[in-house]
Amino acid sequence: MTRNSIDTPVKTPVHAEPRHLPVIVVGGGQAGLSVSYYLKQAGIEHLVLEKHTLTHTWRTQRWDAFCLVTPNWQCALPGHPYRGDDPHGFMRKDEIIAYLDGFIQSVAAPVLEHTAVLSVRPRPQGGYLVTTSRGVFSADQVVVASGGYHTPIVPRMAERLPASIRQIQSADYRNPQDLPDGAVLVVGSGQSGAQIAEDLHLAGRKVVLAVGEAPRCARFYRGRDVVDWLADMKYYDLPVTEHPLREGVRDNTNHYVTGRDGGRDIDLRKFATEGMQLYGVLEDYRDGQLHFAPNLRQSLDDADATYNRINASIDKFIAERGIEAPPASIYTPVWTPESERTTLDPRAAGISTIIWSIGFRPDFSWLEVPVFNGRGYPGHERGVTAHAGLYFLGLPWLHTWGSGRFSGIARDAEYLAGLIAAYGPDAALAA
């Protein structure tokens, strides 16, 4: 694998001017590499700074059986579309890494790996000062492409749980065999939590799942992958400014579904009929008991309502265009909780492991530019902030549904690269 990597440590002598670049890109994942692709095409000098190694997260924060939940044809990184023989399949972890390795090689980005960005702040004369673990740089423009999933969320109640229970975050889960014998409590039923619960369930482990408010969708409906239908319906081209929720859609939890074994629904009710124990949202641990909200029935009903609503929108599309397709259907529950169980003694239940799968918080504490709202999320319009020459790329719903995915990052990166080229260093210094 060829990388245009700069390995010599950068040391800025006292009183020396920092090394200057027209553009610095923070983050060497698919977002940073995508904008590098277009900057290279435009002949714009730049440098990608990566705290670890390129596409590090894909290699280190995915479980062994991980696979894409969107079909392979949606892998459309710039200049590097999916070229395999299974466009409607779902790449597994090793195939995803091979795909990314090919992208890294094709882009050949100028990159400094193992370089942590410690601060980015405006310079009085214009542009930005970028302090890193390997020296100080200045830049006319900065693209923040480090994603929005930085700090795993673990509630403070975790501190009070028995020391005998092993606790890990979803990013650290690898496979059922790595966990101690005993039951496993998975907290959170978003995309990762639901798939990890399934992975454990298929391995024959006793699973207790604290179900959240995540919606779900069908894998296949009326003869096609739901993703194919939604693509034809132009859902993936819908900008956030035209979405009914507007910017509120950025707070939505992803629908749970899987591409495992060729793709299928994840039906938590079916798992319950097979022995998985379902509870509502985990709220607390006290007096030796786990305490859950009495909202399991509502969460399951709401998830199914979303499932049926998406399918109904496909029905309408088919009817309006006179498309020949298998008949419509409505999901009906295969299991309903008889009552809401609100407490559980983890020792009596034999729980040996808790997997926290309740998401991540963004951490942009190193970015010393006032562009954030009260929840630490950057204010921007299609990645462009109110501060001249500062951009974000790769965030969920930055512009469309695919902004944080392989499917839509190219469009966003090309757009920002065009603005960067039009802006120019002279304009930056005059700002």
UniProtKB/TrEMBL annotation:
Any Pfam family matching the protein: Pyr_redox_3
Keyword flag Cell inner membrane: no
Organism superkingdom: Bacteria
Annotated keywords: Oxidoreductase
Signal peptide: none
NCBIfam families, alphabetized: MSMEG_0569_nitr (TIGR04046)
The protein's name: Predicted flavoprotein involved in K+ transport
Organism: Cupriavidus neocaledonicus
Phylogenetic classification of the source organism: Bacteria, Pseudomonadati, Pseudomonadota, Betaproteobacteria, Burkholderiales
